[in-house]
Amino acid sequence: MDLTAVTQYRFARSRDEVFPAPGEQLVAGGTWVFSEPQPATTGLVDLSEMGWQSVEDLPDGGLRIGATCTIAELVALPPRPGFRAHPLFAQCANALLASFKIWNMATVGGNICRSFAAASMVSLSVALDATAHIWNPDGADRDVPVADLVIGNGINVLAPGEVLRAVDFPAHALAAVTGFRKIALADLGRSGAVVTGRIDPDGTTVFGITAATEWPTVLRYPRPPAADRLRRDITTAPGYYTDPLGSADWRRGVSAVLAEEILRELTGTG
């Protein structure tokens, strides 16, 4: 897509250069930016030369995924001892239903910042309690759970000028046993519901619902819940919506069914 209003394209190579001015838009892989007109955008700030590491180890044993890490790099991340949640990386990436060409350009940070309800990297981050590390122009950086970052379909809490630097995955979630389900109305259609579940080493049980709700839904229990409790909590959660890819009632119903399947899988009761 030709962006006819753009008059300036610059590469950011330091923190001072990374923050966009009015009219500028950040670009990493560019798979969304160049997919449709951007009439309000007069300049692009390319993050590809910031030199951010794709994957870093955190002091607590978790992982930091750089915002410019591509989907392909994330999927190629090799298993590590004790990281039982590793299958979720590929499972959520595959929910994107993109070609290898997109995978090699699209970035983790870009997918999260676009904040679509069906954003696959939001699904992954919500499933594993990931936190967004955000750079602020005034130097007051902040950390926000990705589950709280996205507040609507295509809407997030990033303030003008803020930059997503990295996504941090805690060790306790990476050590969890996990389950994944996705459904769409068409075989190659956009996700109508993505449901994840995990049981941490201490028994804490977490279910995440994305794509079916306009913002992420997270259900947390001290131990695996009874199936009827889980179904009730899912069907009464807010945010289910209707669009051409599914009705709110359908999304609500299938989310409950998929979550119960995961519960049986994780607890060995089905």
In words, what does this structure look like?
Helix content is 27%, strand content 24%. With 270 residues, it is an alpha+beta fold. The strands form four sheets. The chain has a five-stranded antiparallel sheet. It has a four-stranded antiparallel sheet with strand order 11-12-13-14, with helices on both faces. Helix 3 packs antiparallel against helix 6 (120-127) and helix 9 (227-235) packs antiparallel against helix 10 (248-267). The protein is globular. The mean pLDDT is 94. The protein contains ten helices and 14 strands. It has helices spanning 15-18, 71-75, 87-94, 100-103, 108-114, 120-127, 146-149, 171-174, 227-235, 248-267; strands at 8-11, 24-27, 43-46, 55-57, 63-66, 131-135, 142-145, 150-152, 155-156, 163-169, 177-183, 193-199, 205-210, 217-221. A hairpin with a 6-residue loop joins strand 13 and strand 14.
List the helices and strands and how they pair.
Blueprint: E1 8-11, H1 15-18, E2 24-27, E3 43-46, E4 55-57, E5 63-66, H2 71-75, H3 87-94, H4 100-103, H5 108-114, H6 120-127, E6 131-135, E7 142-145, H7 146-149, E8 150-152, E9 155-156, E10 163-169, H8 171-174, E11 177-183, E12 193-199, E13 205-210, E14 217-221, H9 227-235, H10 248-267
Parallel strand pairs: 1-3, 2-3
Antiparallel strand pairs: 4-5, 5-10, 6-7, 6-10, 8-9, 11-12, 12-13, 13-14
